[in-house]
Design goal:
Strand content: under 5%
Order of helices and strands: HHH
Number of helices: 3
Number of strands: 0
Helix content: over 70%
Radius of gyration: 15 Å
Structural class: mainly alpha
């Protein structure tokens, strides 16, 4: 697949986060979902356990992103 890639320095990236904090929410969901799918496959989790773990991890990832970028 073709991919376009952009390089942003820290200042530019911070401006994006400040202008659109919802991006942090979306990115944290994607990161946690993908991680949970891998964990589920490795640990053989049922759907309820997987859902609970996703919810817990999403809160942690989102908080980390917001803290790091001062959102």
């Amino acid at each position: 697949t073709d991919v376009e890639c952009y390089r942003l320095d820290t200042v530019d990236f911070e401006q994006v986060w400040q202008a659109r904090p919802a991006i942090a929410e979306a990115i944290s969901h994607v990161l946690v979902e993908r991680g949970a799918q891998l964990d589920s496959a490795l640990q053989n989790l049922d759907e309820e356990s997987k859902h609970n773990e996703i919810h817990k991890q999403h809160s942690e990832v989102l908080l980390t992103i917001k803290r790091f970028f001062g959102l």
